[in-house]
Amino acid sequence: MMEVVKPWRHVFKLDPERELGEDALEAVCMSGTDAIMIGGSSGVTYDNTVDLMSRVRRYELPCVLEVSDLEAVVPGFDLYMIPMVLNTTDSAWTTGRHREAIERYGYLIPWEALIPEGYIVLNPDSTVARLTGADTDLSLAAAEACAHVGSKLMNLPVIYVEYSGTFGDLQLVERVRRASGQARVFYGGGIRDRETAAQAASVSDTIVVGNIIYENLTKALETVEAVHNK
Ligand code: 1GP
């Protein structure tokens, strides 16, 4: 399954809790982005996930669920990305909730469609940082060590540098990328236009664009051009 993910340079992340009209959804799905990821840190339910998946399914690009809530795991996605937070001491967010999920639903899990992601959560004001108790105050060396833990000790295929809601420190992202070996480095957070997209893309393998879709669709669509028609 990593073969599907490897060529991705650009992903739009849609939040099932937020409204997106039909025309906007079509523009997003036809933009040339490499995949649609569905996920959010709060308010994700089975119903709003099914609803959004069935709307995205009308288009030909890969549709991926980033699993954050066990109650909202819906069958029928191409891939399931499973976050494991690398910079928290609360083991619930590294393996705890995962173990519970497997105990309860292991027999239903399509293992071949799962991709684990080592999350490094860096915006202290984000919901995901609060929720997971992430230690966001990382030096460059500490971030690099997190990347080593994820890529070399845990052999995770994706390291996700998550600045959700704010544009990150690209020097740090670059260090993480160098430390991540064969793992693909995803960057997400605060990409709002062509320039920020190009900058983030220069230090990562895949950029993830979320919020701006709901705030300024034109600018969101330009982020695809920044990586695909340079
Ligand atoms: C969120 O990384 C993504 O998980 C994208 O962040 O919403 O800030 O674009 P933004």
From TrEMBL:
Keywords: Lipid biosynthesis, Lipid metabolism, Magnesium, Metal-binding, Phospholipid biosynthesis, Phospholipid metabolism, Transferase. InterPro entries: GGGP/HepGP_synthase_I, GGGP/HepGP_synthase_sf, GGGP_HepGP_synthase. It catalyses: sn-glycerol 1-phosphate + all-trans-heptaprenyl diphosphate = 3-heptaprenyl-sn-glycero-1-phosphate + diphosphate. Sn-glycerol 1-phosphate binds at K13, Y160, V161, E162, Y163, S164, G165, G190, G210, N211. Pathway: Membrane lipid metabolism; glycerophospholipid metabolism. One of its GO terms (molecular function) is transferase activity. Its cofactor is Mg(2+). This is Heptaprenylglyceryl phosphate synthase. It comes from Paenibacillus zeirhizosphaerae. The gene is pcrB.
